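Quick log. Single chain, no ligands specified.
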Amino acid sequence: MSKRLASFKGPSAPTSSPVLQPTQPVIPPTSPSRLSETTCHRRLRTLLQELRSISQTWDDIVLVDGLREARTLVDARTELDNMLSLLPPDSEPRSEIVGPKLAIMDNSIAQLDAIAAKLQKLLRRMSTVLDNLEASYHEAQRTKGARWCQEEALWVSWPLEKFVKSMADVELPYHRSLALIKDIIDRLRSHSITFEASRDAISQWVEQPYLAEDGWEGKWEDLCAVEVERWDAK
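-> predicted structure:
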């Protein structure tokens, strides 16, 4: 063992290759706004998260509650049509056959009307959030100046003005979607609608075509996850 340790005594022989010094990673300059969050940062994040919450509630109402009632309505009408088709010609259907199905259909129509009213209320909430977003922008202009609002990146690259101007586009696709939903409800309301037309209406309900690309999830969620620090922080 003493011979093995002896090989470590004395200076190491020089090598012909130069010793590479460790390099320090290049760190990009940090925006002054990112060093410490202000009330403006926190308020903007809160308002954006509220817009996300509204959109999530919208999807829950449309794709869970609304879809259930629309399908219940179509199923009850289809079952009644099938029952009536089995009756002999010129015979009157018994009330115990027709009555319960009509009651189910009437209840589903009433529930769909209530769902449209809930969505209208969500749109008013969304409009209020956008008004508050604009108000926070004007307040920041007053306290920090127009140049700060236009040029200073809040977290990554977007300044406050870009957030505010871009969010103005959030509301329109939801207005269009609600108009479509009301139209679908009116179509399903008619007892003379065919099964094929009902099926097409249900497909439109599920697709929410105006929100597929321009709704919150399709257009804004990933962007906010990148541009807003602590976006998903609890």
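The two ends are 60 Å apart (CA to CA).
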